[in-house]
């Protein structure tokens, strides 16, 4: 048996064998006193003939229509599950979620685990709250919407991501949902959604500590300042402004970790002014061409800008301040001069860039706190004795630097000392040759200088 069902704009297909109908009928007969003679009998002879299959299809469809007419107010749970209301229909989805939380909600809250919801579920809850209907539609107290609201008010860790839509035509990326029902969230992760369908995110500004948003947005502004669509001019609450503004936007008071990796973000816009307490910022796997506005984040410690389109990072210390970890892997960097004043930097990942000149390492060789450096998969890595030549740029700190996740060996340190001695000799020779060039060339030829006099004579005794 196959039947197409719909709930307004959403459609789905239900497929069942006769045995499934038999099981359903037994439950309804026992629980709802449905007439046992209502279900068409099973026939053996000629069961595969086309005419019999078509007649059986019509009889079973009539059976379902009769059941739905028999329960116009509240569809029995067994029948709702049979028709996949709990997967695709708003009332069925919320009822199933409410019953799940009735049984497990308190246990989940006490365990402090991340709870996963789909946009379709959140959409259904949002739609139910907008309807002037009882919070319990089928008369079963276990499916009351109140169980969901109580749970969402106390939930601390939430993950929202799309799932399989089965046989339906539902496009979860187009379903708006409201997050304002979550009053105590500390952590949220949103994946494979559209920032345009997310409502109520700004209501989390007072409590949220960690926010991860992936494959969902083209700009930081749409996540951090959704009000910007209504107020073209705005300022962070408490900021001093010399020009008139149309809105004062509250800051994210508790947010310390922001992960916006794997999106389509092309610039770091001024919305970062609303996240002054952020310490961990991940903007990897986006489309950034420059590093801007991060000077507003005074507490920034760890920054991930890997796998973007960065070709140069100029005067990084003016934007990245006192960071300890910087990941620039997978970009197109050729020059490191902009990193020369990151004096607090401890970990630096420059792997998979376009660095081909060992001289560029001198720009970071004097960083006093640098301990871990990755240069793997750069053109310079094919240079003979690459490791020791890089470590030599760190002078007396060579032993303290872990290059490409490998601890420096004693043999390498010995080679580094030799390279340092050679380099020092070259520098002395260069200074001496530079000094000779400053001597009057006529003195070197034994001719009188401008002041006159005889050339000096050097006597050597053996």
From TrEMBL:
InterPro entries tied to this protein: Leu-rich_rpt (IPR001611), Leu-rich_rpt_4 (IPR025875), LRR_dom_sf (IPR032675), PX_dom (IPR001683), PX_dom_sf (IPR036871)
Classification via SUPFAM superfamilies: Outer arm dynein light chain 1, PX domain
Entry-linked Pfam families: LRR_1, LRR_4, PX
Stretches the record annotates as Disordered: 428-457
Domain of life: Eukaryota
Keywords: Leucine-rich repeat, Repeat
GO cellular component: cytoplasm
Record-annotated PX domain positions: 1-89
Keyword presence, tRNA-binding: no
PANTHER family: NISCHARIN, NISCHARIN RELATED
One example GO MF annotation: phosphatidylinositol binding
Amino acid composition bias (Basic and acidic residues), ranges on this chain: 433-448
Protein name: PX domain-containing protein
Repeat listed as a keyword: yes
């Amino acid at each position: 048996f196959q039947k197409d069902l719909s709930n307004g704009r959403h459609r789905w297909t239900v497929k069942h064998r006769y045995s499934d109908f038999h099981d359903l009928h037994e439950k309804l007969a026992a629980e709802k006193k449905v007439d046992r003679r209502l279900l068409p009998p099973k026939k053996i002879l000629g069961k595969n003939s086309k005419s019999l299959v078509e007649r059986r299809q019509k009889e079973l469809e009539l059976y379902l229509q009769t059941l739905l007419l028999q329960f116009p107010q509240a569809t029995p749970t067994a029948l709702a599950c049979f028709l996949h209301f709990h997967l695709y229909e708003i009332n069925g989805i919320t009822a199933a979620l409410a019953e799940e939380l009735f049984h497990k909600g308190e246990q989940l809250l006490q365990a402090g685990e991340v709870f996963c919801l789909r946009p379709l579920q959140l959409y259904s809850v949002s739609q139910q709250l907008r309807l002037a209907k009882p919070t319990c539609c089928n008369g079963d107290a276990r499916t009351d919407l109140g169980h969901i609201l109580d749970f969402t008010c106390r939930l601390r860790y939430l993950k929202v991501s799309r799932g399989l839509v089965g046989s339906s035509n539902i496009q979860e990326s187009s379903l708006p949902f409201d997050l304002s029902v979550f009053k105590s969230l500390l952590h949220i992760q949103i994946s494979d959604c559209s920032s345009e369908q997310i409502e109520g995110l700004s209501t989390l500004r007072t409590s949220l500590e960690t926010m991860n948003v992936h494959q969902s947005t083209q700009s930081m502004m749409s996540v951090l300042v959704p009000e910007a669509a209504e107020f073209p001019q705005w300022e962070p609450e408490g900021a001093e402004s010399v020009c008139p503004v149309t809105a004062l936007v509250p800051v994210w008071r508790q947010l310390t970790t922001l992960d916006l990796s794997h999106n389509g973000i092309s610039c770091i816009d001024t919305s970062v002014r609303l996240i002054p307490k952020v310490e961990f910022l991940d903007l990897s796997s986006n489309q950034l061409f420059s590093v801007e506005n991060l000077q507003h984040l005074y507490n920034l410690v760890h920054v991930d800008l890997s796998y973007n389109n960065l070709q140069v990072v100029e005067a990084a210390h003016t934007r990245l301040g006192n960071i300890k970890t910087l990941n620039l892997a997978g970009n197109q960097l050729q020059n490191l001069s902009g990193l020369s004043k990151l004096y607090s930097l401890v970990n630096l990942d420059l792997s998979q860039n376009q660095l081909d000149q060992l001289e560029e390492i001198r720009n970071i060789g004097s960083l006093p706190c640098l301990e871990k450096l990755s240069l793997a998969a750069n053109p310079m890595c094919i240079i003979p004795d690459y490791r020791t030549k890089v470590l030599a740029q760190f002078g007396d700190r060579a032993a303290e630097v872990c290059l490409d996740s490998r601890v420096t060996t004693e043999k390498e340190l010995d080679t580094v000392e030799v390279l340092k001695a050679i380099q020092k000799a070259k520098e002395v020779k260069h200074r001496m040759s530079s000094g000779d060039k400053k001597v009057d060339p006529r003195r070197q030829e034994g001719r009188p200088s401008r002041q006159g006099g005889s050339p000096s004579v050097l006597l050597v005794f053996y």
